Amino acid sequence: MRSATTISKMTEWQKSVKETGRNIGFVPTMGFLHEGHLTLIQEAKKNNDCVAVSIFVNPAQFGPDEDFDAYPRNLDADIRLAAKAGADIVFCPEVDEMYPSDGGIRIVPGPLANRLCGASRPGHFDGVLKAVLKLVNIVQPDSVYFGMKDAQQLAIIETFFRDFNCPATVVRVPTVREQDGLAKSSRNVNLSISERNEAPAIYEALQQAVILFHEGLEITAVEQFVAEQIKNKTSGTIDYISMLTYPQLEEPDAMSDELILACAVQFSKARLIDNIIFKREG
């Protein structure tokens, strides 16, 4: 497996792949790889000739009071894990390589970014799209793989690719979880022992709430149920709990078919997000 730290080396690799008629699956990450990331790489390997993985902690998507400096990093381990999972190349640029200058042009994700995580993290998804667009332009993949834990991010990226005719196909991959149901995340290492024991209650509450919704409970009551469960069973502070249409992220009506029940909970040193995407019927 190769690694590249410069855009020119990454471009050289992708051109050599395309010249031989092979396709590329791409997995963009911020590193500190866990089983969720490895599942994305494995899925990409099943369906593509070559797999590229990026490891780039993107400062553009962190707010002024967020944890850019504290975000966990272990590049050597990440490269070994990516290779074992089937990656053919890891692109791991420094910030100055990705953002050598700033011409002032911005990508504005619009109403999709005003709900859920975007409501309390202004500018976050602007930064996500900035990095994703640059990485896709550099790697030139045929398919890009994203986990469904970051459901709002996925919805925004799918809409962005559709509306701007990005040639790569976005592939959804289901959330990978620990045995107790906690969604795997690089930030889980920042939970204290007691917080880690509490955290599975988030997904349990979402699961129970979806059952209650199918039994006839109204949306506001469903959201209140989740809030009460999380308050009673964890020491975290709720950022939001919301049921919306997916991937439009709008208020549901009687005709809405696919829905998302999503939440974010802030612990002392980690903010956890989780969701369930489900059909109204079934």
From TrEMBL:
Beta-alanine binds at Q61. Keywords: ATP-binding, Cytoplasm, Ligase, Nucleotide-binding, Pantothenate biosynthesis. Its main location: cytoplasm. The active site is at H37. GO terms for molecular function: ligase activity. (R)-pantoate binds at Q61, Q153. ATP binds at residues 30-37, 147-150, 176, 184-187. Its EC number is 6.3.2.1. SUPFAM superfamilies: Nucleotidylyl transferase. Homodimer. Catalyzes the condensation of pantoate with beta-alanine in an ATP-dependent reaction via a pantoyl-adenylate intermediate. Belongs to the pantothenate synthetase family. This is Pantothenate synthetase. It comes from Sporosarcina jeotgali. The gene is panC.
